[in-house]
Structure to design on (207 residues):
């Protein structure tokens, strides 16, 4: 079983914690990570782009003029896609871009993402990050002390002061362990786990 150092907000080592090999020492396969990240991004698409086709346009269905004898094109009604204000041919319609990925694959991808951070020595375990009140300046100073500037911080429970303090800091995100996902782990350079989140993550992934 792997072991990670636990540091405090002053970057001082205060303890050690065991990391389950089934989660933090999994061989990384980029194909699985790519499939899950692609599915996540596809599910975020709104899919609300749409146009009015011929049947949606308001207008008379009467033929504009007789078929023969005028020397003009053989027009139908005013809703024809060939006329200004008519319907649109083959335009986008409302749809969902989401596609399913098996639960076992999602869980494996999450383990791989966590393992990749540990392999890259970009995984940090912090005992706690408590703030009495929202203060971005103090939060930024703490990050500077830890040597972090691009990080995903995973917390074990809602922390109003910490979340507000980090909200306006670029390239930093605070996320509760229940919402931990592959895309966010890979997006940020460093992964910061509060000590208490490790048990929550292991309980979620070792079912």
């Amino acid at each position: 079983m792997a072991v990670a150092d636990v540091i405090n907000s002053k970057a001082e080592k205060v303890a050690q914690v065991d990391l389950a090999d089934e989660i933090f020492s999994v061989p990384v396969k980029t194909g699985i990570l790519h499939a899950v990240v692609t599915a996540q991004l596809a599910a975020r698409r709104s899919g609300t782009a749409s146009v009015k086709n011929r049947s949606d346009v308001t207008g008379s269905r009467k033929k504009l003029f007789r078929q023969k004898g005028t020397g003009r094109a053989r027009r139908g009604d005013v809703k024809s896609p060939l006329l200004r204000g008519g319907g649109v041919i083959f335009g986008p319609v409302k749809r969902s871009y989401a596609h399913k990925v098996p639960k076992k694959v999602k869980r494996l991808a999450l383990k791989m993402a966590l393992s990749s951070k540990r392999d890259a020595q970009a995984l940090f375990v912090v005992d706690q990050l408590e703030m009495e009140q929202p203060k971005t300046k103090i939060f930024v100073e703490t990050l500077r002390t830890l040597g972090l500037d691009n990080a995903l911080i995973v917390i074990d429970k809602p922390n109003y002061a910490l979340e507000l303090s980090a909200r306006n800091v670029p390239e930093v995100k605070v996320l509760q362990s229940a919402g931990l996902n592959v895309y966010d782990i890979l997006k940020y350079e460093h992964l910061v786990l509060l000590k208490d989140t490790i048990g929550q993550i292991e309980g979620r992934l070792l079912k």
